[in-house]
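Data follows
____________
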Amino acid sequence: MGMRDPDWFKEMKRAFEHLNKRVQALEEGARRSHARLTLPRSDAWDQLERHQEREVHYANVILLLGYGGFFALWTTVAGKMPAWLFGLSGLMIAFSLLLFISFELAKTAVSSASLTRSKKLGLTANQAIDRSNLAVDVINGWQPWIFYPAVITGLGAGLIVLGFFGFTLFSEAYSAASPEDAPPAAEIARP
């Protein structure tokens, strides 16, 4: 089968048509990808705002469960725990809460301010996100001085309350099983 053979021309024509269809499919895929990457400004900003709302919701759930759960347990032992231990755990959790909320509010404020400035400058959503992330990275640079003490004092307060629960459980179990509280053997043996 050579170049002068009519079947060869047909085969070449089919091959080129097939390649042309594949190139057109690739071009269409590239157009769709480009359309996704260059969303209209309002759609990109809507997606960005939805992303921020999810982050805020997640942070609120963590705060509600973690700190709310601690305060619920802490108030149940209010009259039973020694005053100094109760005060220490309360001070630690309050300090932790103050640091954590301050840290999260600072990140939110910086991110929001950066996004607002980006919107005014007419930046794309991707540029705005990058700019916001850089601004939040500045706040995250303070993480060792804010976030870690918040975690350590929060966990410390939780361990104090947990330790008190454990101590109470073991002391109650020990006093219930203590031999001096048991009736004398003579009383047990009576019919």
User: Anything to note?
Assistant: Residues 79 and 164 are 12 Å apart (CA to CA). Helices lie at 6-37, 41-76, 83-121, 125-140, 143-176, 185-189. The chain has six helices and no strands. The radius of gyration is 34 Å.
